[in-house]
Write a structure and sequence with these properties.
four-stranded antiparallel sheet, 516 residues, Heat Shock Protein 90, 59% helix, single chain, 13 helices, 2 domains, alpha+beta
Length: 516
């Protein structure tokens, strides 16, 4: 009987798990599709509105040329203030001026890190071949001429794998004023006839739309934004669904427990006593856990105090007594014993340095940042002078780029340069002509500081371990250190909102880059 019940229960459990997983996933997919469609439509509508604003600004300029500039030209021509042979498209052609203005507009966009926006004035009968309409654009001109109530057209398309939004508006319909330059060739100003010997731009009809203006912009960023927003919405909805299902499951458990308690109503007093006992146990456990947490915090405080005070005293005692033993009882200690004592003192020195580095790491990562304008070049020169003064026998050339300034905490950034320049000085010790550089580059428009040396370098396969505490890529016998310095540097850089990385190869030096 038990095996039969177990066999029946197993498919039920699988079905329940399928529902628990399948329903949220299916709901998430539906919500993702709907939210993506809505957000994409909104983003495209906003982009469409921005394009229309650009096109309308162009139209306003065309109206200005037609209604202000050209009538002024006609009056000046009739009054004899300008010769009849004068005509300059740079001053009188709105299509020419708009095209040039848009090219300058794109140059400013590129300087600002934005992609250029495609623009074209397309005409069936242009004066300038650059405005010649393609067959598709010619169909658009015919469409606008067939329906003057049609104000614009817009659609999305893909070019070279990138999505774009394109919008087209008709050029201003030909008026009597327009036909002075675009009507019969023999009626046009003499300067215009001389400048354009062909029939391009002439013989236009009154009320006809002779061109369209086209703007095309990339929308990959907008589509990515829509996808990110949709993913965020899906994540929230999925979380709510899981929470609701968990709540339903929890409610079922509570109901089952309530049913069980109702079945045991005959033992009400015992149940109440059991509940009271359970409450007391829970309260005791809560108090016990709070006490444990307090104890752990006290232990952590005690450990920090021991590191800063108690551990140093035994280390000094061990080092002092071992030195006293070697000096006062030198006759009774053989060479092996003296070697052991030297190792003890060396270990004490390394342990003391490690404790000091740990305390410095803790202090630097806890202290409040006080940002000021800093001369990093001056700080680097101070560190270089101290390094050279500490090792007068070393020959190392420091190349420090002048005028490097940044906003940051003086103490923390001094610690950064101490460690980076100190490491460069240390790892160039085997090099006969050591060279250490501190400077600045630009990467993607962002300032990037670097410390470069021609020392022993390291294998990039282990670069992930470089900024971890107690991590060393070289043996302690060749290069002393505790493995805390770069961990300190990384934490300081991160607290300044920057990042740090390194490039190197064995025997070819190393370069550390960081931003602030």
């Amino acid at each position: 009987m038990r095996s039969l019940i177990s066999a029946l229960a197993s498919p039920l459990r699988r079905t329940r798990w399928v529902l628990w997983v399948g329903v949220p996933l299916l709901s998430a997919l539906v919500v993702m599709a709907a939210s993506y469609a809505l957000v994409r439509a909104y983003v495209l509508r906003q982009a469409n509105a921005d394009i229309r604003d650009v096109l309308l600004s162009h139209r306003g300029f065309h109206v200005y040329v037609q209604q202000v500039l050209l009538p002024g030209y006609d009056r000046a021509l009739k009054e004899g203030r300008i010769p009849a042979t004068f005509y300059d498209p740079r001053l009188m052609s709105s299509s020419y001026m708009t095209r040039v203005m848009h090219s300058f507009f794109n140059e400013e966009r590129v300087k600002d890190g934005l992609p250029p926006i495609y623009y074209k004035m397309a005409a069936d009968n242009p004066r300038n071949p650059v405005n010649r309409a393609t067959p598709e654009e010619a169909q658009l001109i015919q469409r606008f001429n067939a329906d003057h109530s049609l104000h614009d057209l817009a659609w999305t398309l893909t070019l070279h794998g990138e999505p774009y939004l394109e919008r087209v508006i008709p050029f201003l319909p030909n008026t009597e004023a327009c036909l002075q330059c675009h009507g019969r060739r023999e009626d046009a100003p003499l300067g215009l006839q001389a400048l354009y010997p062909g029939q391009g731009g002439f013989n236009e009809k009154l009320g006809q739309i002779r061109a369209v203006e086209i703007v095309r912009v990339p929308i990959s960023h907008e589509i990515q934004t829509a996808a990110l927003v949709s993913a965020s919405v899906v994540g929230g909805v999925l979380g709510l669904l899981l929470l609701a299902m968990f709540n339903t499951r929890l409610r079922g458990l509570v109901q089952a427990r309530t049913t069980l308690l109702e079945a045991e109503v005959r033992e009400r007093r015992q149940a109440e006593a059991a509940v009271r006992e359970l409450n007391q146990t829970l309260e005791y456990r809560v108090e016990e856990r709070n006490a444990q947490l307090l104890a752990v915090n006290k232990e952590l405080d005690a450990f920090a105090y021991s590191v800063s005070h108690d551990l140093r005293a035994p280390l000094r005692a061990i080092a002092g007594f071992s030195q006293a033993l070697e000096e006062d009882y030198a006759q009774g200690v053989d060479d092996t014993g003296r070697d052991y004592l030297a190792r003890i003192r060396k270990g004490c020195t390394r342990m003391g340095r490690l404790i000091e580095d740990l305390l410095q790491l803790s202090r630097l990562t806890r202290r409040e940042i006080s940002r000021v304008d800093l001369d990093l070049s001056a700080l680097a020169r101070e560190v270089a002078e101290e390094l050279q003064a500490g090792a007068p026998g070393r020959k190392a050339l420091f190349e420090i780029q002048p005028g490097l300034r940044a906003s940051g905490d003086p103490t923390l950034l001094r610690a950064v340069l101490d460690n980076l320049l100190g490491n460069a000085f240390k790892f160039t010790a085997p090099v006969p002509e050591a060279r250490i550089s501190f400077g600045e580059d630009l990467a993607d428009g962002q300032r990037v500081f670097f410390v470069r040396d021609n020392g022993v370098g390291f294998d990039m396969r282990y670069v992930d371990k470089l900024f971890g505490a107690f991590q060393r890529l070289h043996d302690a016998e060749s290069f002393e250190g505790t493995g805390i310095g770069l961990a300190t540097v990384q934490r300081v850089i991160l607290r300044h909102g920057g990042r740090i990385w390194a490039e190197s190869a064995p025997g070819q030096g190393a370069t550390f880059f960081f931003t602030l």
